[in-house]
Amino acid sequence: MAILKLHGHPFSTCTRRVATTLAELQIPFELIEVQLAKGEHKQPAHLAKQPFGQIPYIDDDGFILYETRAICRYLAAKHPAKGLIPKEPKANAIFEQAASAELTNFDPAASKLGWELVLKKMFIGADPDPKAVEDQLAILEGKLGAYDVILGKTKYLAGDSITLADLFHIPYALLLAQGGNDIMTRKPNVARWYKELAARPCVVRFEGGVKSTASY
So what CATH class is 4-82? Predict the structure, then answer.
């Protein structure tokens, strides 16, 4: 079987979300770098695979799939023994609850903050907008208050075992720290959870950017 190909960018948060899942599942992959600065993601060859002109997408032995969280769910479903998506109905519902919280409560503010603090300078050479930073920090601070309550009851967001819901947070949580912000370590339960995730081998592996991984 051909090695899985991940079409993305080494410093893309969405590419890292997929790569982190691949590493947690110990699935070898080849990174096919999409040259964003050259507009490759808007060219016909890329649009034929990803019609929205975004990254990443995967080619799993001819099976093409885009949308980061859909990719991660597909990979976890192919390797159910790892338990990243619980199967028991109630456990699965709690997982989906946690995954929804990431998508609707964490990601909107964290992604805007990550853009202002790090990615804006990296990709377009612009400085952060202080007002945007202040506004998004206030929103995220409130959301993490709820996270602290949740994580005061269980080790991870969906119980006492790690799931995709936890891994989904990694790229932007790390990006905020890279941008010099300590918001992920201000609340005790969030800080404990975040530090444990940040130390996982699947996370440490890509500290310098996503790269092809032939073996683990």
Answer: alpha beta
